[in-house]
Amino acid sequence: MISANLPAYSVAAPLLMAVVVNLLGARRPALIAPLAMVSLAVSTLCALFLLPRVLRDGPLSYTMGGWEPPWGIELIVDPLSALMLLLVAAVALVATWSAGASVAKELPGREHHFFTLYLILVSGLLALTMTGDTFNLYVMLEITAITTYGLIAMGRERAPLASFNYIIMGTIGACFLLLGTGYLYILTGSLNMVDIGRILPELYGGAAVATAFAFLMVGIWIKTAFFPLHSWLPNAYTFAPSGTSVLIAPLMTKVSVYLMIRLIYTVYSPEYAFVLHPAVPHLIVWAAAIGIFIASSLALAQVEFKKMLTYIIVAEVGYMVGAVWLINEQALTGAVLHIVNDALMTLCLFLVASAVVYRQGSCRFEDFRGLYRRMPWTMAAFTVGAFSMIGVPPTAGFFSKWYLILGGIEAGQYIYVAALIFSSLVNAVLFFRIIEIAFFDGADQALDAEGRVIRNEAPGALVQPLILAAVALIVVGLSAGPLVSGVIAPALSWLY
């Protein structure tokens, strides 16, 4: 019975804990972060049990309330959704580990409000990885969006305005998604993804099918921050509280890319998306390449670390979206692998930002002066995250970029390959500029009157998850072969 209900438990654990945190958190704030971690540990354990099970036995279908599909809401756990479930749960658990300390400092007295929204957001992301229903997909996306608006607005300075801009763009994206879902329901009389995928091939020639597809893709691309629909992301992630950005930056865009893959391969089909309209993939790959060039160039102009990372995220979205539309196995493998790797890389680097903000008050480039001496553990993890973002072996980022480049060459899309190489070179310039500042500048500021180094490392609750994220980048990099052959290849085989 427990095994059969693992998909529901993984979503319910943080959702129910959000209620507990909201009721008890104001009186016992010290318990909030540990309770949140317990609930996410439950979700992570559920995902750890589910992944090998579905790899061994095939997809698992879980129906809510006893209503059988296509009428009831169905959760589908196949190898790809199980991988995403584990990624979301594990990243959220590590992010929560660090969030307690940063939230207590940045949002004193509001921790219970923060973690209530935080846990509902994670619950929505977990449900998105498994949903087998198009309307439920829309509902879960809106739950994640609304909670994210609130979490961002809790920040200081321009955070409320950034959240308002996000609300405008997010609402537009939601309208596109709802219109696409409505068209599909009118055409097929069903909301179940598999059921729609069974009915749609008979209707492929209709303009309404193409309109629904366009609405769904544009809605997802807004949520993904795919260039040029990215304008909401830089300020939203920059001005959000550290505890918020550490969670949403690694997960929101990656889950949205996964949803794009799910809609193409489950609701529609590769034949419809890639073959019946052959000019569309070419245009999207070009848009992705242009987005990578422009976002990487904009990152060069930044002097604030988090703002720089946001433009790198926009470029990384171009990597993954473009790869899906290259239409070959190497590129799709690279896209899925890069979803995993980019989540870990972004987690590591935003944890660095959180630690620096905790000690320095901000994370402009000048705040990194002398940090290799004063915050050695933080900067060691930063170096690993930076090398992975650049694509230096054996870190994780190298292997997914290798697959992406091979996919681009196989597809003959050399503009995409050039964009990847350009972005990697820009990343090298960006991160080595920070390394230079942190290692060579302000070295005398790290010494006391007697010439001894003044260590001012962030608290253990911030440094420990940061070290874990850095180690994970190396471990995942060294395990790229088994990960691809043992998990990603079987996951993709279920899509076709």
Automatic annotation (TrEMBL):
Any GO MF annotation of the entry: NADH dehydrogenase (ubiquinone) activity
Annotated membrane topology: Multi-pass membrane protein
Pfam families from the UniProt entry: Proton_antipo_M
Swiss-Prot/TrEMBL keywords: Cell membrane, Membrane, Transmembrane, Transmembrane helix
Domain of life: Bacteria
Keyword Cell membrane: yes
InterPro entries in UniProt: CPA3_Na-H_Antiporter_D (IPR050586), NADH_UbQ_OxRdtase (IPR003918), ND/Mrp_TM (IPR001750)
GO biological process: ATP synthesis coupled electron transport
Protein's UniProt name: NADH:quinone oxidoreductase/Mrp antiporter transmembrane domain-containing protein
The species this protein was found in: Geoalkalibacter ferrihydriticus DSM 17813
